[in-house]
Automatic annotation (TrEMBL), chain A:
Residues 625-761 form the Nitrite/sulphite reductase 4Fe-4S domain. Gene3D superfamilies: 3.30.390.30, 3.90.480.20, BFD-like [2Fe-2S]-binding domain, FAD/NAD(P)-binding domain, Sulfite Reductase Hemoprotein, domain 1. Its cofactor is [4Fe-4S] cluster; [2Fe-2S] cluster; siroheme; FAD. Residues 317-384 form the NADH-rubredoxin oxidoreductase C-terminal domain. This is NAD(P)/FAD-dependent oxidoreductase. Siroheme binds at residue 678. InterPro entries: BFD-like_2Fe2S-bd_dom (IPR007419), BFD-like_2Fe2S-bd_dom_sf (IPR041854), FAD/NAD-bd_sf (IPR036188), FAD/NAD-binding_dom (IPR023753), FAD/NAD-linked_Rdtase_dimer_sf (IPR016156), NasD-like (IPR052034), NiRdtase/SiRdtase_haem-b_fer (IPR005117), Nit/Sulf_reduc_fer-like_dom_sf (IPR036136). One of its GO terms (biological process) is nitrate assimilation. It comes from the Bacteria. CDD domains: NirB_Fer2_BFD-like_1 (cd19943), NirB_Fer2_BFD-like_2 (cd19944). Keywords: 2Fe-2S, 4Fe-4S, FAD, Flavoprotein, Heme, Iron, Iron-sulfur, Metal-binding, Nitrate assimilation, Oxidoreductase.
TrEMBL record, chain B:
Pfam families: Rieske (PF00355). Residues 7-102 form the Rieske domain. One of its GO terms (molecular function) is oxidoreductase activity, acting on paired donors, with incorporation or reduction of molecular oxygen. GO terms for biological process: nitrate assimilation. The keyword Cytoplasm does not apply. This is Nitrite reductase small subunit NirD.
Length: 802, 104
């Protein structure tokens, strides 16, 4: 039987999302054709502001690349505009002469930017802000012109204005009302937003109506109703959008403001549907993405002949995507005589929160400055939750600490647990129940949760515990990866007692279920073997992550960054000249000071790395490695009027002592010359603080994902003692921590008192230091090695055939 | 009709075992892997996730792990492994004597 034919007019987010749902529900049910006017595959229009702001390229915001269309057997016509619908014969015609028949037709023609009907609107450099073409025009204009005016202080206008600021333009936003984003914010939040944006350099003309645009061919300025004038070389109109209904209207489909649809997205003509910004449902036309997706889901089920609830309209929520500003709003948020509000305002921190309640039901909210509660509030608003539930939100952090129960219990199934990979609570619970998962590791394998930044691991752990209930046994034993059931301690013990000397041997003897291991266990085994047999073990390059194999940091575009060692952060004019020369010679696109007081050369091509290193003639800074990164220092007693110690020399000594030492995870250190802690010793793996007549050593500090202040480990009198105690600490960490366990986690796991107890014994310290010296003995500077040894150098070469 | 061309990309010993190598031919960027003495595989050097350079990934058996976000890809057929989805284009590699050829 021939497949039924489905035609989609409009290759944008709403329409294509609907097609994706249909494919998910019934892969082979339709032969699908898509027509799009823009010459691109479907991209994320919401993220245009990132392209404009320069943080994303067009490729980054593509949602469905051409391969996707191909893989799903979709005929895609880009650059084609459908001009005619013949619903008697069920065919559509395009401007380029294609005629396509359909059984079902979806209109997702989106909307057009509204251009103010004022004199001068046709001048060049007057543009709208709607598609990738508009972005390109703005970027182009910013290269020549300086002064930009954005008409419209709504969401779109402010995003455009922020993008233009990033392009170094002088930007004035013109708004006809006296508050910004009045459809999404209440007056207090609007004013806070305006103040914040002004601080970022944006200018505003409020209560200003534009009467005409001045200029000959190109726009040169704006004249307002009150007669005043503003110079501008570029004018962006972001005053609103109009549903694109022309096509429907011309062909007898009922149109009001948008194309009129019922609760199943059906138009007035059989077999023709509409979704997205072009559709009008129960008198509402939506311009935000969430409602469009909700519509798409209902229509997809309808077309795939799966039972569905009708679409009954959407509650809106907004998050403003402007750097440095967190704003959220949802539902109804303007105070009325019959509403009550929960309010919180902190002018010092720039935080404002308001939740509106009517008849004991939560109906809307505005959050400014801190929007963590946004997701939960939005759900409550959608569900019409009782005002009592507000308590569970705003006092949650407190109760959690007091009662020890986890917040995951209160979360709804569709709330996200893993923000990086978009995994919801429901997905994880389902995976635990249906697949019988019993560890965070297996949840990661099936759902992807915790895979990226790992910040959600405690939540997943809690969720696992709550879901399994009595069946959950807190497993002390955590396998090192999914290739084995053995824990770190068992593997290391086997390596030592059975004298295992290569990763292959470990995997064979200990019966790995994956013969060749994986990207988790191989680097770990390589580390454990090197730690256990410092003299004998030959490092396995193939078991190292690219950064440690090539001794540089891979960047998202496949180039690398190079950070030379600059001991204690103390450089010299000569060294700086050398670095500058290298940056010029290899056309290095960015030279940046790092957080650890070093110089980062970013964007180096792989094949240039050995030459860059040779020309620098400096040791590797190990900025890519699980090893000592840097020792940050303050200027110390030689210069500072508060300094009590020579922190610079102490830092240099420590950096020279520990450089090239492989550790379970990266190790950062700092030395400050007084408790003012200008080198941030409190958040380092080892932080040294000079005090009058001695030094304090702090350990287990961390300024990253796991923010933690260091614990005072010991106070000593001399520089030698600082080196002795930090050496013993590092070596004990090397020998007992799990691979990829930072000192902050390790100290919490084995406990500070235990470490202090072990290292208290002078003999133990001496033994540890001896073993560390053995490990350092055989270490060589990797950059030098790459320059000198042909076999290493070979790795940096590529093959080019022309 | 599709015409395939064999293109020489080097000799066997120019490829280190279990270390990927980037081979650029015309518009193609191809990650070539020598998995054992005379066993080669080649795929497009572009992870379907965020375009990561697969030639730099850790190789484990028949799989390569993308260096950017650890996606696991089967070099035998180019398929992405669960929990992720997708596939990369695969190229045929043949060895004659000591010479390595790729089919385009």
């Amino acid at each position: 039987m021939d497949k039924r034919k489905l035609v989609l007019v409009g290759n944008g987010m709403a329409g294509v999302n609907c097609i994706e749902h249909i494919l998910k529900l019934k892969e082979q049910s339709y032969e699908i054709t898509i027509f799009g006017t823009e010459p691109h595959p479907n991209y994320n229009r919401i993220q245009l502001s990132y392209v404009l702001g320069g943080s994303s390229k067009f490729e980054d915001i593509v949602l469905n690349d051409l391969e996707w269309y191909e893989k799903n057997n979709i005929h895609l016509y880009t650059g084609h505009t459908v001009t005619k619908i013949d619903h008697e014969h069920r065919v559509v015609h395009t401007d380029k002469g294609i005629v396509e028949s359909y059984d079902e037709l979806i209109l997702a023609t989106g909307s057009n930017p509204f251009i103010l009907p004022i004199p001068g609107a046709h001048l060049s450099n007057v543009i709208s802000y709607r598609d990738i073409k508009d972005c390109e025009k703005m970027i182009e204009a910013s290269k020549t012109y300086k002064k930009a005016a954005v008409i419209g202080g709504g969401l779109l206008g402010l995003e455009a204005a922020r993008g233009l600021l990033n392009l170094s333009m002088d930007v004035t936003v013109i708004h006809v009302m006296d508050t910004l984003m009045e459809r999404q914010l209440d007056p207090i939040a609007s004013k806070l937003l305006q103040a914040e944006l002004e601080a970022q350099g944006m200018k505003f003309r409020m209560n200003a109506a534009t009467e005409e645009l001045i200029g000959e061919d190109r726009v040169e300025g704006l004249r307002f109703m009150d007669g005043s004038v503003l110079d501008a070389d570029l004018v962006v109109m972001a005053v609103g959008i109009r549903p694109n209904v022309e096509l429907a209207k011309e062909h007898g489909i009922e149109v009001n403001r948008g194309i009129v649809v019922n609760d199943y997205l059906e138009t007035s003509v059989p077999n023709i549907y509409a979704v997205g910004e072009c559709a009008e449902h129960r008198g509402n036309v939506y311009g935000l993405v969430a409602p469009l997706y909700e519509q798409g889901q209902v229509l997809a089920k309808r077309l795939a002949k799966v039972e569905t609830k009708p679409y009954e309209g959407s509650v809106l929520s907004t998050k403003l995507k402007v750097s440095g500003v967190d704003v959220f709003s949802a539902g109804e948020f303007i105070d009325q005589p019959d509403t009550k509000a929960y309010r919180f305002q902190d002018d010092f921190q720039g935080v404002y929160k308001k939740v509106l309640v009517k008849d004991e039901t939560i109906i809307g909210a505005v959050l400014f400055g801190e929007i963590d509660e946004g997701v939960r509030l939005f759900q409550m608003i959608r569900n019409g939750a009782h005002e009592k539930e507000l308590k569970t939100i705003f006092s949650r952090a407190k109760t959690e600490k007091e009662s020890g129960t986890s917040q995951v219990m209160d979360m709804a199934d569709d709330e996200l647990i893993c923000g990086c990979n978009g995994v919801s609570k429901g997905t994880i619970v389902q995976a635990i129940n249906e697949l019988g998962l019993d560890s965070v590791e297996s949840i990661k394998g099936c759902t992807g949760a915790t895979r990226s930044c790992g910040g959600c691991k405690p939540l997943v752990q809690d969720l696992l515990q709550c879901t399994l209930g009595d069946n959950f046994q807190k497993v002390e034993k955590e396998p090192i990866c999914s290739c084995t059931a053995l824990s770190r301690d068992e593997v290391v013990e086997a390596i030592r007692s059975m004298k295992l000397t290569t990763t292959k041997e470990v995997m064979n003897v200990l019966e790995w279920n994956q013969e060749n291991g994986c990207s988790k266990c191989r680097p770990a085994l390589n580390y454990y073997l090197g730690m256990a047999w410092p003299k004998e073990y030959e490092d396995e390059r193939t078991s190292r992550f690219v950064n440690e194999r090539l001794h540089a940091n891979i960047q998202k575009d496949g180039t690398y960054s190079v950070v030379p060692r600059i001991y204690g952060g103390v450089t010299s004019p000569e060294q700086m000249r050398k670095i500058a020369d290298v940056a010029d010679k290899y056309e290095i696109p960015m030279v940046k000071i790092t957080g650890g007081q070093r110089i980062d050369l970013l964007g180096v091509k792989k094949e240039d790395l050995p030459n860059v290193w040779a020309d620098l003639d400096m040791p590797s800074g190990y900025a890519y490695a699980k090893a000592l990164r840097t020792v940050k220092t303050c200027v110390g007693e030689d210069f500072c009027r508060f300094g009590t110690q020579d922190s610079i020399q102490m830092g240099i000594d420590m950096e020279k002592r520990f450089e090239r030492l492989w550790t379970p995870h990266k190790v950062k250190m700092a030395v400050s010359a007084c408790p003012r802690n200008c080198a941030e010793s409190g958040i380092k793996d080892i932080g040294v603080v000079g005090v009058d007549g001695g030094w304090e050593l702090y350990v287990g500090g961390n300024g990253g994902v796991h923010l933690r202040g260091g614990d005072l480990f010991i106070k000593v009198k001399t520089r030698e003692e600082v080196l002795e105690w930090s050496s013993a600490f590092i070596q004990y960490y090397r020998e007992t921590a799990k691979y990829l366990e930072r000192t902050s986690h390790w100290v919490e796991r084995v406990e500070l008192e235990h470490i202090q107890e072990v290292l208290k014994d002078e003999g133990t310290r001496a033994e540890l230091i001896k073993r560390m010296d053995e490990a350092l003995e055989s270490s060589k500077d990797p950059w030098k090695e790459a320059i000198e040894e042909r076999s290493v150098r070979q790795m940096f070469e590529k093959v080019t055939i022309s | 009709m599709r015409v395939s061309t064999l293109i020489k990309i080097g000799t066997v010993d120019e490829f280190q075992v279990n270390v990927g190598k980037l081979v650029e031919i015309e518009d193609h960027a191809i990650a070539v892997f020598r998995l054992a003495d005379r066993k080669f595989n080649a795929v497009e050097n572009r992870c379907p996730h965020k375009g990561g350079p697969l030639a730099e990934g850790i190789v484990s058996g028949d799989y390569v792990f993308c260096p950017l976000h650890d996606w696991k890809i089967d070099l035998k057929d180019g398929n992405v492994q669960a929990p992720d989805h997708g596939c990369v284009k695969k190229f045929d590699v043949t060895i004659e004597g000591e010479e390595v050829f790729i089919t385009l």
